[in-house]
Records
---
Amino acid sequence: MINLGKFVIIIYCGKKIGERKGKLTMKKKIIVGSMLILLLSGGIIGIKSVNSNKNREISPKKAVKEIYGKSKINRLDEKEIKNLKMTVNTVEDAYNVEKDGKNKGKAIIIRREGAKGKLDILIGFDLNGTIEGVKVLKNQETPSIGGKVASSDFTEEFKGNKIEEELEVDTISRATKTSMAIIKGVEEGKSAYKDVYN
């Protein structure tokens, strides 16, 4: 629907073009002005979608800080990561989490396939195997879907779940495949943690 501001721009653009090319009818002015607005708004939308793609990746360090607060991460040694990968082959990486010089837990990154591509999911555990938080580090989903599954509303549902408990998290409508990939990724992270650390 065209609001008054857009209508004025359409008329003005049509008038200016009409002055250059001779006389244009009002209908042609509106059509030309509408085309210009569509082109301009398409460029703005294109810029927004390019920027949103850049913002769909966060580092493990930033994710851990969002989960644990001010903390430090150290990548686990290769042997420990290999043990995790032997139990669950979707383990991508893993870290020790330290806060105030004390070990606070582990952060395990799981890679799963979403609807449009790979999802890297970081699951933060405390020393008892309770989930401290879940963050989607990287996703190739469309911004509207990727934004929903990476949102804190969805990922907060995992917080406090213990490794021996079943997950009771609902998928997100219109993002079922992606949210299911995250749920399965969290289950796999729990399984890896349980097999190696409990």
---
Amino acid sequence: MVHKETANKLLGVLRGIFNFAHKYDYITKNPAHMVERYSLEPADKDMLREPVYIPRGVYEAMIHSQAARRHPPIRQVLFLLYHTGMRIGELRRLRWADIDLGNHIIHVTASPQKGGDRDPYMVSRQLRVYMAISKKMAHQTHDSGRWKTERPFEQAPVVCNGNGNKFSYSNLFHRVWRPFLQELAQEKGDVFSI
């Protein structure tokens, strides 16, 4: 079975090939235009419109777990998502230049599909302290040359892999989030289940 996203990509390739053939009069009509793309919207999209809040006790159990200590990016992701209410895509786009600790603001850039506008988020004292420590540690890592990137530190993503690049959604889920949740379920099985 082929995933819907893969089928859509293949359809795009086929449309391109048939467009070429149509352009040079090898065919009279592009048959791929009659095939509709799969919808990638979740079936329960209407149920997902309401925000989901994690109770403080659950958040604290997650962030203080041994599983979170073994997966450093998870602690940062959990902390930022919980204390700012950002979406995961906004967090992935967040750069150190977007964080203004002096004015207690994080400038969050919306997705390009939503116009890419920048919205300011007010920063709590707890988040300000955490971000100051995180920024200092990230700056030291950047200056040591361990990140395999030539970009200036201010343009580096706040949440990044060991090379200083932002995580793709797939890597963030499969290499960071999923192993964390599996370990968390083993560690605190009575509270968390996958």
